[in-house]
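ok, trying the design again with the full structure, not the truncated one.
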């Protein structure tokens, strides 16, 4: 079962966080984008559930997958 990601206005201003923590999905994705390994992230945040990184990636994929793209016309 995937780690739950919740949005609660009372926690981190409603940003998506891993349930039971104040760690945002954004933080974990930024660390991955900066080149940190899953092991490095896990060592730095021992409260992070073991499958949280995969959950963060799934969340990001779902958000991007639901994005509405409106093509702009070409300017002359």
């Amino acid at each position: 079962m995937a780690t739950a990601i919740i949005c609660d206005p009372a926690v981190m201003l409603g940003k998506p966080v891993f349930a039971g923590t104040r760690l945002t999905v954004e933080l974990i994705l930024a660390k991955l984008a900066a080149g940190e390994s899953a092991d490095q992230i896990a060592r730095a945040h021992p409260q992070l559930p073991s499958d949280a990184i995969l959950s963060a990636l799934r969340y990001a994929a779902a958000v991007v997958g639901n994005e509405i793209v409106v093509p702009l016309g070409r300017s002359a």
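Keeping the full-length input from now on. The mean pLDDT is 93.
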